[in-house]
Amino acid sequence: MVEQLKFIVEQLKRPPFNRKDYNILTFDNLTNNQLLQVLTDVFAVIDPKEQAHKIDIRDEEPDKTATRHMNTLKMLGYRPKLDTDVNTFRQNLVSGDKSVVFPVLQWLLEKVPEHKERAYLGRYLSRAEVPTEFLSDPEIAEQYERCDELMEEFKEIHQAYKETTSTPHTIEDLRRDIKQLEDEKETLQKRLEKQKPRVQKVPAAQIELAKNYRQEVEKEAKLNTMKQDLQNAINQLEQKIQRLERQVADQRSSSYDQSPEAIMKRMEEENQVNSYLVTEKFPKQLSQMKTKLKYYEEVTSNKALGQTELTSYRAKISELNSAINKLHEKRVLTKDPTADNLAVFRQQALIVARRKEQAAERLTQLRAENDALEKQFGRGASINGGGGASSLMKQAGHIPQGEEFQRYVNMLRSKGNAYKRKRQELNDMTAEIQLLKRTEELLKEQVEQIKSRMTMEERKQGIEGYFSTQERLEELSTMKMEQDELKGKSLDEITSLIKTLNTRISSKKAELDPILKEVKPLRAKVQELRSEYEAKKTKYDALNANFESSRSTLESEVRGFYEEQYAQESRFHTLRAQMLIHAVQLKRANDEQSSYMSKDKTTKSTRELLNKQISDYEVRIKSNRDRQKATKDVHIDGTKQMKYWRDLLRMMELKQKLATGDS
């Protein structure tokens, strides 16, 4: 604990904190709010761009302070000890407990530069918490993905910047790079000179054919992409039509039994259910929630209970429950079931009330599920274009009737016609594709037949393999065109690379020239300063050694003087006390002698006073002895008289008994 405090205080005294007024004692005596303020100041240094840390916590609510501290520690990656509960850690952090604040400060001050970098990165790499239901929106999802891409790009740029700044570029390294770039430049120039004659021999017609072929391949890829997009659009339209058909069927099934009497009956039933919920169920739930809230407030306002208190409370609760059960059993046994005629009806009413509560709970759950499904359905309809029946009903606010229903039917009919038209186009395209495939197969068969016939003719003419050789030559010419095109591209790239290298070399040379001019005098100056520093350091070490030796000698002498001074002072005080005692005794002796020798008898000496007191005490002792002797004699006579009187009294009692005739 002391080492921890010492480390924290030393770090706070250094820049950029500069808290020179702290020492171990003052820092240990800080209040909890002051410790939280110190923690906030440290956060402000680590994350200077966050204005929330530049605040006096007395002007901020404790909950906001705790939330801000917890979020900052989470961003910096602080982890409490394994045996620490998160809730306990949060409570101690809110209260500013030293057992939590001191380890956090030590962890922060140990690696301030790393924490600064983490805070800087956390500002740009913290992901926004977006609810999942919002991510279903295409624009929000696109922006969220774009944010992730930008974060990844930021990571790469920051990593490159870090590598660039961390790599030391000395003058020798720059010279080596320049030499290497010049060698690469010469090599590329030689290769360029070798490739130029070979490129000039390629015919322009072959280059044009390769270009056309590449354009056709790209066009085919675009057509395939368009075909896939159309197929996806058709699938979506089919799903939409199926959904609309289901909605129409649901509307038709729900349109039965729409007489005024049935509608009024349903409205009355719904009104009764709502009145029951409002007058009975919801107030009961509200009172229960208020009771729970009051109980929770009492629990939070009281201090935390220990294990022993919890055990005692549990024992009391079990005792009370057992007492309640016994009283209930006693009441049941003593109660006459035949006396209560309403017991059956009361029980039935209780069962009905319980069933009503269960039905109300079920109704509430079903309504919640219905609302959730409606929200989900509305969100899906909005994503798919918003052309469903639910969107129309939401726009109208009621079931479509008359002209609105006719417009709705017309809309469905137009969409159905569009679907049929798209379906027909798709069928036509499928038939055309099948026809083209069949045509391709027939053409391939004809090509094979022609090849076989050509082979037979070649055999007859004695030039077998001419056709295959011609095809091979065409393939080779095509490959040569592709290679020549690649060579042309490589030559262009080499040329641009050489230009870039020349530019970089010239820029590096321009940058190095002033640096080299500045470095030369600085090196000489550094050598002079280094030699001067070494000489002065040697002189300083010698003086410091002499000073240390003389200081130790003086310290030992001063320590001896202090000990001698302490001994002399104690001896001085002892002698002074003895002198005072002797002076008092001497004064008393002088007074006694003067009073004894003086002729004035009005003032008696101490000796006379003592003699007088002794004589007085002797007289008192003599008188007390005489009184003691007289008292002893009287006591003996009195004892004898009491014995005589007792005997006389006993004798008289016996005579009385004899006279009365008692035995």
UniProtKB/TrEMBL annotation:
<dbReference type="GO" id="GO:0060271">
    <property type="term" value="P:cilium assembly"/>
</dbReference>
<dbReference type="Pfam" id="PF18383">
    <property type="entry name" value="IFT81_CH"/>
</dbReference>
<keyword id="KW-0206">Cytoskeleton</keyword>
<comment type="similarity">
    <text>Belongs to the IFT81 family.</text>
</comment>
<keyword id="KW-0597">Phosphoprotein</keyword>
<comment type="function">
    <text>Component of the intraflagellar transport (IFT) complex B: together with IFT74, forms a tubulin-binding module that specifically mediates transport of tubulin within the cilium. Binds tubulin via its CH (calponin-homology)-like region. Required for ciliogenesis. Required for proper regulation of SHH signaling. Plays an important role during spermatogenesis by modulating the assembly and elongation of the sperm flagella.</text>
</comment>
<keyword id="KW-0969">Cilium</keyword>
<dbReference type="GO" id="GO:0030992">
    <property type="term" value="C:intraciliary transport particle B"/>
</dbReference>
<feature type="coiled-coil region">
    <location>
        <begin position="171"/>
        <end position="254"/>
    </location>
</feature>
<dbReference type="InterPro" id="IPR029600">
    <property type="entry name" value="IFT81"/>
</dbReference>
<feature type="coiled-coil region">
    <location>
        <begin position="419"/>
        <end position="460"/>
    </location>
</feature>
<keyword id="KW-0007">Acetylation</keyword>
<protein>
    <recommendedName>
        <fullName>Intraflagellar transport protein 81 homolog</fullName>
    </recommendedName>
</protein>
<keyword id="KW-0963">Cytoplasm</keyword>
<dbReference type="GO" id="GO:0036064">
    <property type="term" value="C:ciliary basal body"/>
</dbReference>
<dbReference type="InterPro" id="IPR041146">
    <property type="entry name" value="IFT81_CH"/>
</dbReference>
<keyword id="KW-0744">Spermatogenesis</keyword>
<keyword id="KW-0175">Coiled coil</keyword>
<dbReference type="GO" id="GO:0030154">
    <property type="term" value="P:cell differentiation"/>
</dbReference>
<keyword id="KW-0970">Cilium biogenesis/degradation</keyword>
<dbReference type="GO" id="GO:0007283">
    <property type="term" value="P:spermatogenesis"/>
</dbReference>
<keyword id="KW-0221">Differentiation</keyword>
<keyword id="KW-0966">Cell projection</keyword>
<dbReference type="InterPro" id="IPR043016">
    <property type="entry name" value="IFT81_N_sf"/>
</dbReference>
<feature type="domain" description="IFT81 calponin homology">
    <location>
        <begin position="3"/>
        <end position="128"/>
    </location>
</feature>
<dbReference type="GO" id="GO:0015631">
    <property type="term" value="F:tubulin binding"/>
</dbReference>
<dbReference type="GO" id="GO:0042073">
    <property type="term" value="P:intraciliary transport"/>
</dbReference>
